[in-house]
Amino acid sequence: MRVATTAIIAGLILFCEAGPFGGARPSIAAGNGLRHSPADLPVPVPVPAHPVPAGPVLAGMQASPAGRLATIRDRGELVVCAASNLPAIAWRNARTGQIEGMDADLANALAARMNLRATFLDTPSDAAIEAVERGTCDLGVGGLGISPARSARVAFTKPFMAGPLAAVTQPVSTRVPGWEGLDREGVVVAVRHGSVAEEVIRQHLQRAELLPVQRPMIPEQEIGAGRADVFVTDYADARRLREEGGWRVANAPGRMGDTLYAYAVPRGDDAWLSAVNAFLAAARTDGLLMRVAQRWGLRNVMVN
Which residue in 47, 82, 119, 224 is deepest, having the highest Cβ count within 10 Å? Predict the structure, then answer.
């Protein structure tokens, strides 16, 4: 767990500058980050979310020899694994019970362009990779950051959003005021097990202790219980904590741990991956991507 700081800096520069697809890292798009949509933006009809099934793959979810794209069309349904606790990205509206946010809007738009209905399975972000990997859903959305370990398990689309890691502490904490003094003897750093933050911080720490937290435990509660001093998480989750209030949330300095976000599909089906990438490319060209991002206050973190 203790690897020299220079190793993570070099790895982060390579990952952030080159990106997971080669070439230069996409640039951050300009925007004012307004939360409301322009008057001409149609609001997609929300679709109910259902709990993600455990155990065996859903009946009918196994891709046919012709490929997942053909299976989806024959089924007439796009099954989407989506988080339900990430404000503006993918979250459950307590009043309507529907999954809403930028990723829900785009998944509904993809389904509509394919003349399908979208069905959402309520899946925490840290469980979505496994769900996509085993074929429980056709598409994984909701704050899915790209990392080398995750890319070995699922296929990612081209990224469309980026954001830094964040250090989360109690507002009154003087032991770890943020990123300063985080890597010290006696400091316990909590992360979500299987997250991008865990991959980055595991390589970065030399002196502090890493505490991977698995569900159903919640990392920020480890701070309140005194078992951790700070919780390091990604941009999507940090938005949730900022909106909840009651936490001090500090972005990582410089480019450290800058995470690229994309959608995930099962590996080994180039036709389905190409279809989703084609949809995202068309959404960039016709302005849908930026209109939806503008509606949810995310335009300033979109990438070109």
Answer: 82
| Domain identity same for 211 and 154 | no
Q: What is the pTM of this model?
A: 0.77
In this structure, how many other beta carbons lie within 10 angstroms of the beta carbon of residue 104? 30
Q: Helix or strand or coil: residue 222?
A: helix
Is 137 in the same domain as 186?
A: no
- pLDDT tens, position by position, 37-60: 333 333 343 444 444 443 333 433
Considering the domain architecture, whether residues 154 and 284 belong to the same structural domain is answered as yes
Instruction: Please state, in angstroms and rounded to a whole number, the distance separating the CA atoms of residues 142 and 102.
Output: 9
Q: Tokens standing for 19?
A: 């990106």
The answer to whether the beta carbons of residues 194 and 200 sit under 8 Å apart is no
Q: Three-class SS of residue 145? A: strand
> Which amino acid, residue 270?
D
* Same structural domain, 155 and 213: no
Same domain assignment for residues 53 and 158:
yes
DSSP-assigned beta bridge partners for residue 300: none
